Amino acid sequence: MKRIFEFSSNAVSPPTLSKVLQLLILEFVPDKLPSFNDKLLMIEEAWWYYIDVYRLLYPELPRLEFIDFVKQIAFCVPTQSLLQNELNTTSPDILLSDFNNFKSTIPCYGAILMDEDLQHVLAVQAFRTTRWGFPKGKMKIKEDPVVCAVREVEEEIGFNVLPFLVKENPIEIIMGKKKVTYFFCHHIPLTTPFHPKTRMEIHKIAWLDIDDITREVIAKNPDFNFFNQLMINAMLTFVARQKGIEPKLLVLDTPCNSSYFSENSFGMEYFSKLYTNAFKTGSLHR
């Protein structure tokens, strides 16, 4: 959990961009990192915090794309001369391309949350897409896999899955150069409230019936192309183990429409209230 950078809400003017960037670098970017791309990864985390927190509290601060955020840090933060050197010798497009390639190799960890009847799984939908998936995120340097999964899931849905997490027999998927691992978490009540802690990452959260997911996959619904036969059968196998029965693996079935799930949308109104209250109480964090 990141600490709060205190700025007086009664100040005559908002904090300067330079001051904010210096504080973010101090908090998020360690002095010693294995590589330049590792530094960019930490700066990216600071950038998300800048978007999630500072620009909401201080709309006067400029909207910055990631590469512009990096340029501003190189210009405003004296300790980041390495950034300036890289920007002077390498084009921004190449820097971003190398960085994205680097991120594509970082292992990801997440969780498959299941209800008390082991019939529903919790799915998330990011902004700017209609595809459903499971909450997950990139591992930090030397981070324990379970710690990573718990941290990322809590950021995306605002819920601590550690008491429900099963460490044994996770699902492991290879996506290009990246390994993605999901731990099962079960017996979570359907009435559990979920609220993402990041502002522009998760758009919708919903409990989906496993049988309905199966039918949507068979129907080749593009909103469900994250799921596949291997993943569904792994979920069905886990359920069967918990119930002590033989698994009924994926078989062809009649397609159905995708109107079966209940969903919650999270917009600016919710986050405005969240961060306003958090700022007043001093409990703001990402």
Task: Write structural notes for this entry.
- This is Mutt nudix family protein.
- GO terms for molecular function: 5'-(N(7)-methylguanosine 5'-triphospho)-[mRNA] hydrolase activity; manganese ion binding; RNA binding.
- One of its GO terms (cellular component) is P-body.
- The protein is an alpha+beta fold.
- The protein has two domains: 15-101, Orthogonal Bundle (Arc Repressor Mutant, subunit A); 106-278, Nucleoside Triphosphate Pyrophosphohydrolase.
- Helix content is 41%, strand content 16%.
- It is built from nine helices and eight strands.
- The chain has helices at 17-28, 36-57, 66-76, 81-89, 92-103, 145-157, 210-218, 229-243, 268-281, and strands at 108-113, 120-126, 132-133, 136-138, 165-175, 178-185, 202-209, 264-265.
- The strands form two sheets. A four-stranded mixed sheet has the order 4-1-6-5. It has a four-stranded antiparallel sheet with strand order 3-2-7-8.
- The model is unreliable at 1-6 and 252-286 (pLDDT under 50).
